[in-house]
């Protein structure tokens, strides 16, 4: 393993989250190193998306700590102002299940609005980077088009460029292909795989186990709000030790 891959990037400690009486996260721990691709897998309703959203301040856990190397570190507690969790958003960027693009903005405007208006970066640099990234995902011809004229796979690739434009240290993917028609899944997965090969750090909630085996270094298997198994992808997916992981894999065969 390269030294880069040993540098800690994110630590998640003992996250708890309930929605009313529904205890969705019941003490989640894991960590991500720089350059690591971590796949979060598990049955529907096990808390994967909620855990992912906590990393980005989109969800505020009831307790636990999310800390990025070099900051910020957020120790959650009941009543913590939402703003405290939002500081996490500077370190990561989320690619959602659906693309979440602004319908009234062009592709180029969608991917540059954050860097220009929120991050207030220089226009010339932002435009150059946007064009470079749109070209990389094969959408350079679409930059003046509106999202509604694009296929689902193209929209999702714009969503990925929008996340990259924010220059995050960590990319978060929430089931990035689950809303797509089957024939469009491959084009999105191949972009994600390229990013993984380039050394981007990412946490990926996915039900695409073959893809997880292909790109992930580490797999976390969650069930019923806890981490049941956490280890190298080949081991967790190929030779799981826990009964619950084995049962989950078998259901998918
Ligand atoms: P997964 O990603 O593993 O399918 P989720 O994190 O999406 O699991 O959901 C876990 C549980 O939390 C589900 O029972 C879901 O209904 C509940 N849940 C998620 N988000 C909310 C919310 N905003 N309000 C109420 N319940 C929620």
From TrEMBL:
The keyword Cell membrane applies. The keyword Transport applies. Residues 10-249 form the ABC transporter domain. It is found in: Cell membrane. Pfam families: ABC_tran. Its main location: membrane. SMART domains: AAA (SM00382). One of its GO terms (molecular function) is ATP binding. It comes from the Bacteria. It is a peripheral membrane protein. Keywords: ATP-binding, Cell membrane, Membrane, Nucleotide-binding, Transport. This is L-cystine import ATP-binding protein TcyC. It comes from Glutamicibacter ardleyensis. The gene is tcyC.
